[in-house]
Amino acid sequence: MPKTRFQALAESQKREYKNIDESGRRSELFARQVFNEEKMLQFLTKEAFDNVKSAIFHGSKIDRKIADQVAEGMKAWALSMGATHYTHWFQPLTGATAEKHDAFFDVLPEGKAMEKFGGAQLVQQEPDASSFPSGGIRNTFEARGYTAWDPTSPAFIYKTTLCIPTIFVAYTGEALDNKAPLLRALHAIDQAATSVAQYFDKNVRKVYATLGWEQEYFLVDKALAQSRLDLTMTGRTLVGNFSAKGQQLDDHYFGVIPPRVLSFMSDLEKQCTQLGIPVKTRHNEVAPNQFELAPVFEEANLSVDHNLLLMDVMEEVASRHNFKVLFHEKPFAGINGSGKHNNWSLATDTGVNLLSPGTTPMKNLQFLTFFVNTIKAVDTYEELLRSSIASASNDHRLGANEAPPPIISIFIGKQLSDVLDELEGVSKGKLSPEEKTELKLNVVGKIPEILLDNTDRNRTSPFAFTGNKFEMRGVGAKMNCAKPMTMLSTIVAKQLTDFKKEVDALIDKKNLKKDEAVFNVLREYIKTSKRIRFEGDGYGMEWQEEARRRKLSFNKNTPEALQIITAKESVDLFKEMDVMSEVELKARQEVELGAYIFHIQIEGRVLGEMVYNHIIPAAIRYQNLLLENIGGLKEVYGAVHKKVAESQLNLLEQVGEHILEIKKLTDEMTDARKRANGLSTINKKAQAYCNNVKPYFDTIREQSDRLEKLIADDLWPFTKYREILFTK
Ligand code: ADP
Ligand code: MG
């Protein structure tokens, strides 16, 4: 009997849920462990406080003297909270977070000791982080990397460590992480959007991108998860016969949260609240054991940090509750995978959501301006946007009948489509007073009412307008949101920059009034970006054909999707917007392709081990059982045993055939892997892994799943889907 599976099952039956102390209001707990404005006021000098505030708002530099003061205040606060260590917390290109802890404690020459932390330690560090992927940047430039303080995301204490959010860059300036490009993209969109917003309100001084993510995840019993080597090593199940009951009854979705899960959620939310992550909603998702958590939206950089922190905290809290949390985009075949919708908008420092219509015609024209420019940007750079959500694990989810296909399109709803259709008819050049009145009253003026009942939301769209924000739905559950947010902010920044130039030219050269110029440019954008708008079923096959006719890109897998990153138009775009250089783009592409190869390679190796060392041996044991039985029947029945043992003989034959087939396929996969490894360029390798290795995963799985169906339950080595998905 396979011990691991049955021991794990026995262990999972013994679980009890923890009672979480819910005393104390969440509002009082909120941000207790964050060095936010309130704490800064308390622990910093006025001078230091003003400098940090200015750095956050204007991006101004903080000089060493001031940094020393800030460090002093931060240290005093951290020690008062019981912190013993500090770390520069950063986001290397692995997609995860990284940290290297240093103790505050230091020994003085006289043999005494004291807690030390100065401006030098706060502002910059050089972790020996040479093993992080750099896409060749370090080798080419022989550059070391350093981490540098990002004052726009406040420091926080996690357990007993003061965590300082930082960027990770090479001494030659290239970004080695996901945060540095995000900050540059957010700066680009701030500049571009602020100057456009000033057409409508001179008081606007800054525009923030806002992000509200919705994190989907699975929770499975820790012992059961550990009993499967595929889940442990790759985050997903590589084999597993579907459970008879899956999600078809829809009895999990929005259902009563199981007590053990609720206890985990309460514990998690408490931790998050103290860390300043404004968690708000929790519910059961569609698949069994699948859940979702969403916070209140925040400024994008902070929101990205909070999502990464959340994922770390979730893993730790889950473990304490004897769960394993799965962020993989497709941990189980046959049921929904997990995504991370990115709700995105733009907000001014005057408190206005630029994608929300206002109370006056001018405000509504402002809304239309940002709305149409976003559509236009996505149309122009749809392939780049698609590349920002490409990964080996997300490839399983995009287009799998539960998530949008890897084709970018925008859904805006019937009423807003009608508005855009009307705007297409706006006259060229100057507008007559009648036309202006008509536009103000009956087209633009109607928008707020329209949006009030904008309920026909299309869940199959990868990029949907949902009343006062766009929702990007292709982002994978495991991903760092910095990647799609960097891309979206960069393309919209470029678009708004072009828009401003065109409008200004019409005002200066054609003598148009500002609103006339705006209407004129928007009209052209509406016309030229029509192909990106799609209101129908994004999951349907017809759409794939229609999308091809519209010449929208359709990159089905990661190696294909990543090609565009280094195309000339991408290099030009990122250079113009000052977000990434060609070297940085190439490095990113290389890192992503490398990660893709490693993921598929690891999956292939794990699958090989499962087949050779577990599945085939289990099948042989079952064969022996059958042989023993058939032999016994032969002894008793003699010549007529064949009739009595007909079913057993038939089973014996079937099992034998599957053993033969699965062995053959696995041998072939191993050969394909070897051939792929021998290829010279990373691109060829990635393509070979994608096209020659990965297809075996499905055919091998099919054989394994058939064997699972045939073989005696007590001989099957891997915890089954029904066991792992329905243990609460
Ligand atoms: P669902 O998509 O599950 O139906 P909603 O459409 O209500 O849920 O989306 C809620 C998410 O949208 C939350 O994470 C929220 O923070 C985010 N959100 C709401 N307004 C904005 C905004 N202006 N900018 C960014 N995110 C926002
Ligand atoms: Mg959503």
UniProtKB/TrEMBL annotation:
The family this protein is said to belong to: Belongs to the glutamine synthetase family.
Record-given protein name: Glutamine synthetase III
Protein origin, superkingdom: Bacteria
All copies of domain GS beta-grasp, residue ranges: 84-173
InterPro entries on file: Gln-synt_C, Gln_synt_N, Gln_synth/guanido_kin_cat_dom, Gln_synth_cat_dom, Gln_synth_gly_rich_site, GS_Type-3, GSIII_N
Coiled coil: none
PROSITE patterns reported in the protein's UniProt record: GLNA_ATP, GS_BETA_GRASP, GS_CATALYTIC
Domain GS catalytic span(s) in chain numbering: 178-615
